[in-house]
Design brief:
By secondary structure, the chain is mainly beta. The chain is 4% helix and 54% strand. The chain is built from four helices and 46 strands. It has a 22-stranded antiparallel β-barrel. Strands 3-2-5-6-8 form a five-stranded mixed beta sheet, with no helix packed on it. The longest helix has 19 residues.
Length: 771
């Protein structure tokens, strides 16, 4: 009797369990503040697009909002408030394992009837010319990015990577040494592991490395800046990697763990106290890249290891202010051991023991305080340091060592940026302030260069009409090491048309310190001191056009002309010109020649990009650039080392969502085709096989490597359940195992010219869980 009643209730129990089982849900929370002054904005409407039925919330008196029980997926967040510009945050990923937190800053509309749609990824709205924004979420969908911000922007137009085993970048035909790294708006040393990775000489550099020390768990919306930037930014003739840190959850504790063939990550975040104004975020990462070597993957015949730690904490001060503390540190090494059997020595490197070590650290603080009704004071102070050393010992035929060769490179920066941002009436917005940076370089010649770079700046933006926007500003750079100085005026016009279209033009002057880490700064009988070199100068003109098609497609066209002057050049010794007579072509090799600031170069190009943001389960990007990078060689215009002539990227992805009773499975596939012309080199030839010795076989950089082609793939499976999100992913860098040329060199042991190739197929299987 009891059994029959139980069997009779079983179908009902099953139906009840199915009915009560629910798809996992996500939470979106955050705060809407005034862009000028940082005050909370009440009654702002926050909407999720697309959603059916419509999902939205209204901010409270503190500007806060919360949207709960949202189906997991990718959305566009729209924020509206009467009298302010409408703002869109595209591709916002809501998942069950982590509460998505947004801090949205709305700018007052210059005209009451005007409604402009701008990107929340830009610090200045609308997004100016030369700015490419990116997010961590994109790094989790795009193939073979390894969550490295520099590798992410390598897929944008005009950006070329000299070697795919590192994140050094040549931007618009410029030397990688002309780039700079910013953290929370202040310049820091190169925040990368293994700074010698991907260089022909294997020597330390300050332009990048094998992988960024800041893991994806730490980064918020960031951007690459090229061309004419606001006067706040300086000391870079190429690009600025402007990185911002993500704020942690202020409501509850969350964890992220990730393990793969490249490394293991563990991060935690949560509130400090109970006022929902304080947070902390900590991430630790340890490399497991040795597993790839054990699988037989060719990583350059070296044993590579790294680990890093980063943190970010903040709290509210006063009624609307904020104080934050952040830091990061990393250790890395790569070791090459000589072959102990002399019969197997084939190349120069085979009888060498080479050990490279790197240490990097940064510590900073940032503060924001309201200053009156329509202004805010921002200040950031960051100390950063990078120390690299390389030891090379050659073995004789009896396996006894020759004397060891040491290469050391240190870079230290103490950066301060203070700015007052405000509005004067409804049409004028201004930024005034200054930056200081103490730069101390212990260079490859074991000489020290130390001095302050002082940069007061001012800029104003005037909305002349509902459609016309005028920007003008000026900065003044002064380097105390030798007293060199440069005035940097900048200006721009932007015509905003209907349906999100815009036409813009910008002009400006930028300056940068000479590459002191490579230059001999002493003096002697045969050498002139380089102490008196001027700040390098760039004069840029950029014209751009933005066009939107519907809700998701956008096209951008940019045409630029960059004229470089005051570049360090040399005439050589005894009237004999060296293979490089301008530092525009010098990347990793030290220079022991007299120099003068009289060199010139020019970069011109056209960039075209089309993008479809994620919608209806798929996204796509396509971009390309055609450019010329030349330098003046004793009155003759020649190709620079970086004149690849063209770049092209095709990127796309598709997701298939499979909801069940208590979970959502999402399969994803992403692919990227990256291609560019070959970088330049100076041809050399061995004329006499009996006495092999290389001689120049043409003018400097008159030959080019073969064009570069690489295909990357990413396949992933996301599983959302109540309170957690897991993701399996397989990345294949260079999926077709293409053999791309990296550089050519003369190998003394072989007595011939040898071609070195870039990395082949690199697989990375990883698992990530958030809860």
């Amino acid at each position: 009797m009891i059994a029959s009643r139980f069997l009779g209730l079983l179908p009902a129990c099953l139906l009840l369990s199915i009915a009560t089982a629910q798809e996992p849900r996500a939470t979106l929370s955050g705060q809407v503040v005034e862009a000028v002054g940082g005050r909370p904005l009440r009654d702002a409407a926050v909407l999720l697009l697309p959603s059916d039925p419509p999902l939205g919330a209204v901010t409270d008196s503190l500007g806060r909002f919360t949207l709960k029980e949202v189906p997991v997926g990718l959305y566009t967040v729209e924020v509206r408030l009467l009298g302010h510009e409408t703002l869109l945050v595209p591709e916002t990923w809501l998942r069950a394992g982590k509460e998505t937190v947004l801090r949205v800053a709305l700018r007052p509309a210059a005209f009451e009837l005007a409604t402009f749609t701008v990107s929340a990824l830009a610090r200045e709205e609308p997004e100016p010319l030369g700015v490419r924004s990116f997010t961590v979420e994109q790094g989790l969908r795009h193939p073979a990015m390894f969550q490295d911000p520099a590798r992410l922007v390598a897929g944008t137009p005009g950006v070329a990577a000299p070697n795919d085993q590192a994140n050094h970048l040549s931007i618009r035909g410029n030397n990688p040494n002309t780039n700079a790294w910013l953290l929370e708006g202040a310049e820091i040393v190169s925040p990368n592991h293994t700074g010698n990775a991907g260089t022909p000489s294997d020597l330390p550099t300050l332009s990048g490395g094998g992988v960024n020390i800041l893991s994806a768990q730490m980064l918020g919306p960031s951007r690459l800046r090229t061309g004419v930037s606001p006067t706040l930014y300086g000391n870079a003739l190429g690009g600025l990697m402007d990185m911002e840190l993500r704020r942690g959850n202020v409501r509850e504790r969350e964890w992220t763990m990730q393990a793969g063939l490249l490394g293991i990550d563990l991060s935690t975040e949560g509130p400090i106290g109970k006022d929902e104004r304080s947070f902390h975020l900590v991430n630790y990462r340890y490399s497991t890249i040795g597993l790839l070597s054990a699988m037989g993957v060719d990583l350059g015949d070296e044993t590579i290891a790294f680990q890093d730690l980063a943190f970010h904490a903040g709290t509210g001060i006063g009624e609307h202010g904020e104080l934050r503390l952040f830091g990061l540190g990393g250790l890395s090494s790569n070791v090459f051991e000589a072959v102990r059997d002399t019969a197997e020595w084939e190349f120069n490197k085979d009888n060498r023991d080479i050990t490279y070590r790197s240490r990097m650290g940064a510590l900073g603080t940032a503060i924001m305080l309201p200053a009156g009704a329509h202004a805010a004071l921002h200040a950031t102070v960051v100390w950063s340091a990078l120390a690299q050393e390389r030891e090379e010992t050659a073995l004789r035929n009896d396996l006894e060592p020759w004397p060891t060769q040491y290469s050391e490179l240190e870079d230290r920066k103490l950066s301060t940026v203070v700015r007052l941002e405000g509005a004067a009436g409804g049409r004028v917005r201004y930024t005034v302030g200054g930056s200081t940076m103490l730069r101390e370089v212990y260079n490859l010649w074991r000489q020290e260069v130390s001095g302050w770079l002082l940069r007061p700046f001012a800029q104003a933006r005037f909305d002349a009409t509902e459609h016309l926007q005028v920007t003008a500003g000026v900065a003044f750079s002064h380097f105390t090491y030798n007293g060199s100085a440069l005035l940097e005026p900048r200006a721009g016009l932007r015509w905003r048309m209907a349906k999100g279209r815009a036409l813009g033009i910008s002009w400006g002057v930028r300056g940068q310190m000479p590459p002191y880490h490579l230059l001999y700064t002493g003096s002697g009988a045969s050498y002139a001191s380089t102490r008196d070199l001027d700040l390098q100068r760039s004069e840029d003109l950029t014209i751009g056009y933005d066009h939107h098609f519907g809700e998701r497609w956008s096209v951008r066209l940019e045409i630029y002309d960059q004229r470089l002057t005051r570049l360090p050049v040399t005439a050589g010794l005894f009237g004999i010109p060296p293979p490089f007579s301008s530092t525009v072509n010098v990347w990793d090799e030290p220079v022991l020649l007299p120099l003068a600031s009289v060199g010139e170069a020019r970069n011109t190009g056209v960039e075209l990009s089309a993008q479809r943001t994620f919608m209806e389960g798929w996204y796509a990007q396509a971009n390309g650039s055609v450019f010329q990078s030349t330098w003046q060689d004793r009155g003759v215009e020649r190709d620079t080392r970086w004149n690849a002539s063209w770049t092209a990227n095709l990127l796309g992805g598709r997701e298939w969502r499979k909801p069940k009773e208590d979970r959502v499975r999402t399969w994803g596939l992403g692919a990227r085709l990256y291609a560019m012309g070959g970088l330049r080199y100076t041809p050399i030839v061995v004329q006499d096989p009996e006495t092999p010795f290389p001689v120049l076989d043409g003018p400097s950089y008159s030959a080019g490597l073969a064009s570069f082609f690489r295909t990357d793939l990413r396949v992933y499976l996301k599983k959302d359940r109540a309170g957690r999100t897991g993701q399996w992913a397989l990345d294949l860098q260079n999926a077709t195992n293409a053999r791309n040329e990296a550089f050519l060199y003369f190998d003394q042991r072989k007595g011939e010219i040898v071609t070195k190739y870039q990395l082949g197929l690199i697989p990375n299987l990883s698992y990530r869980i958030e809860f």
